[in-house]
Amino acid sequence: METKKVYIIIINWNGKKDTLECLDSINKMRYKNYEIVVVDNGSKDDSVEVIKNKHPEVVILETGQNLGFSGGNNIGMRYALGHGADFILLLNNDTIVDSTLLDRLVNASQNGKRNGIFAPKIYYYSQPKKIWYGGVERTRDEWMFHHIGYGTSEKEVPSNSIIETEYACGCALFISADILNKIGLFDERFFLIFEETDLCFRARRIGIRSFLVPEGNVWHKASTSFGGENSPKFHYFYMRNKLLFAHKHLNITERILIYKDVLKEIARCVTPGNYRNPISRAKLLGVKDYLLKNYGNCPASI
After folding, report:
1. Whole-angstrom Cα distance, residue 182 to residue 148?
2. CA-CA distance, 227 to 148, in Å (whole number)?
3. Prediction pTM value
4. Which residue of 51, 246, 285, 293 has the fewest CB atoms within a 10 Å radius of its CB?
5. What is the DSSP code string of 189-234?
């Protein structure tokens, strides 16, 4: 059987050390019909030169500026679609992959019963048996998303079957060219965070679901590009983009749940003890920028 051509898209932004480690792990995979495209998002270090020297087989696309996760990946996906990709794997540069990753993702996607978007189980790089992403579930009373198995041992989450999930994590998202041609690329207004959720929900509108492939493992350093999940930048994008996602995909009853949660968060942020906290100020600015329709990258002050 002819193997499908996979393009692996990696965004680099001043992260040559992580990117090189990621590339080394990719080249140990058993599945060989792939091309790697590194999109350099305006790095100020010598990332491009170093990557070219150590991995001359890699295609490097230089944007000249930081286009974020959404804009940078769109550059890469357009390239892949224009060069005959059957599938595209979006992969964070701060990851390493199991040698069987592409075999499992391609096999899952070729199952005639599943026309979907796929993601593997993702572990913490620093704690290789601890789960970071095992699919996504939603609390319907609050309309909040939660990673299944987050922070738990791999033994606590079933690992022997493909399951449907609310969305496929953008850290390692596997999608066919056919689906992308139907639903389009990332909405670049998100820049960072919620862009993959938006993509998967747009796919859901036409009957395309998202799945976890539990044995296709990836190990992730968890948000190193913007300082981690407790950084002001993370909370700015999360607050702003949650509101944008709600506006695009939820009905009025569901949006009210989001608005109530945001109002509670605003009330906490403006109390005298919290207002000067950098995270509180980032959250407030995220709400403000959503209301003013200021999208793209975060302000330089964050």
Report:
1. 29
2. 23
3. 0.94
4. 293
5. TS-SSSHHHHHHHHHHTTT-EEEEEEEEEEEE--SGGGT-TTSHHH
Copy the structure tokens of residue 97: 């992959």
Neighbours of 67 (CB within 10 A): 21
Per-residue confidence band for 157, with pLDDT thresholds at 50, 70 and 90: low
Q: Are 217 and 121 in contact (CB under 8 A)?
A: yes
Name the β-bridge partners of 147. 136
Query: What does the alpha-carbon distance between residue 240 and residue 99 come to, in Å, rounded to a whole number?
Result: 37
pLDDT per position as a tens digit, 55-67: 999 999 999 999 9
Alpha carbon distance 8, 56 (integer Å): 15
Estimate the share of the chain in helix, then strand, then coil, as percent rounded to the nearest 5: 40, 25, 40
Sign of the four-CA dihedral 249, 175, 98, 9: negative
**Mind giving me the DSSP string for 31-90?**
---EEEEEEE-S-SSSHHHHHHHH-TTSEEEE-SS--HHHHHHHHHHHHHHHTT-SEEEE
> Rounded distance, CA 264 to CA 276, Å?
17
C-beta pairs of 154-157 under 8 Å, 24+ apart in sequence: 154/121, 154/123, 154/129, 154/130, 156/131, 157/121, 157/131, 157/214
Helix, coil or strand: residue 133: strand
Q: Could you tell me which residues are beta bridge partners of residue 68?
A: none
